[in-house]
Design goal:
TIM Barrel, binds flavin-adenine dinucleotide
Length: 285
């Protein structure tokens, strides 16, 4: 089995809306960076809705000399806007991108969808324009993307994205290890050979998690949902049970050979660091 040191462990952030949020994020990053993750990624709102805030976060990370993978969502943007954004990242010495279609902010309708309809078109463009300048990550969906025609079509679309030049994939979060292992096996049968890193969402706020999960099609299994609901406002019990569930999930994924874990930190350090330490993941040497 692959040594833990050969796997990729990374942290995802979102760009804060306020100066106060940015100050808090800086403290979070300092704490998380102490364990020496492979890189931090930072989300980007489709249609450029977080462009300046994503830049501010990414630029600050680069000033700390932290390996950074900005997300780049193409829907709602023209080719030249994508060129501008990538140019900015090249100036900052970035060599990794998470290439996505993104979701149009609600209310923007179907007008102004931009040059690229799907993430595979963005990956093709990035490879044509920039060659091997970037390591490109794409998204994968073990429980399938909510807009996919069916599971098979979603897998074929994923394969198309990989064939366009993606180096690796990060999954949407999930709480069923089986869903992940079935997905990885099916990808192997389809000769999709890139590493598929498991996306991990720590559980610390149930109502927020339930909202996200409805929107992105990630399933919270009934037994987990029922227990979390049963804790009501008891945040400590939610955190403690959520930690145990996610810890066991991560351990099964690592034992089953996942090439890495990508933590959706939600800009908080404590839940992710507790998992990291109890899993015995490698700390800064
Ligand atoms: P695609 O791979 O383009 O797939 C979208 C849908 O279209 C799927 O149903 C797929 O089956 C279908 N499809 C794909 N190609 C074709 C084709 N050629 N013909 C027909 N159908 C096709 N969103 C953001 O806005 N900003 C972020 O920063 C962000 N970060 C994310 C990070 C990760 C790790 C993940 C898993 C998701 C992230 N998302 C983000 C959410 C993501 O943008 C949404 O899930 C979005 O709806 C799909 O993006 P995608 O890149 O997976 O799209």
């Amino acid at each position: 089995m692959t040594d833990l040191n050969d796997r990729t462990f990374s942290f995802e952030l979102f760009p804060p809306k306020t100066d106060e949020g940015m100050d808090k994020l800086k403290t979070t990053v300092q704490r998380l960076n102490a364990v020496n993750p492979r890189y931090f990624s930072c989300t980007y709102g489709a249609g450029g809705s977080t462009r300046e805030r994503t830049f501010a976060t990414v630029d600050w990370l680069r000033e700390q000399d932290i390996d950074t993978a900005p997300h780049l969502a193409c829907i709602g943007s023209e080719k030249n806007e994508i060129r501008d954004i990538v140019g900015h990242y090249i100036d900052k010495g970035i060599n990794r991108l998470v290439a996505l279609r993104g979701d149009m902010p609600s209310g923007m309708g179907r007008t102004g969808l931009g040059t690229f309809r799907y993430a595979n078109e963005l990956v093709t463009f990035l490879r044509e324009e920039y060659g091997d300048r970037f390591t490109i990550e794409v998204a994968a969906y073990p429980e399938f993307h909510p807009q996919a025609r069916n599971a098979r079509a979603d897998l074929e679309n994923f394969k198309r994205k990989v064939e366009a030049g993606a180096d690796a994939a990060i999954t949407q979060y999930f709480y069923s290890a089986e869903a992940y292992f079935w997905f990885v096996e099916e990808c192997q049968r389809m000769q999709i050979e890139v590493p598929i890193v498991a996306g991990i969402m720590p559980i610390s706020n149930y109502s927020q998690l339930a909202r996200f999960s409805d929107a992105c099609g990630a399933e919270i299994p009934r037994w987990i949902r029922k227990r979390l609901e049963g804790f009501g406002d008891d945040k400590e019990s939610i955190r403690s049970f959520g930690h145990d569930v996610v810890l066991e999930l991560c351990q099964r994924l690592l034992d089953g050979g996942t090439p890495g874990l990508h933590f959706y930190t939600m800009n908080q350090s404590a839940p992710t660091l507790k998992l990291w330490r109890e899993l015995g993941l490698p700390e800064a040497g």
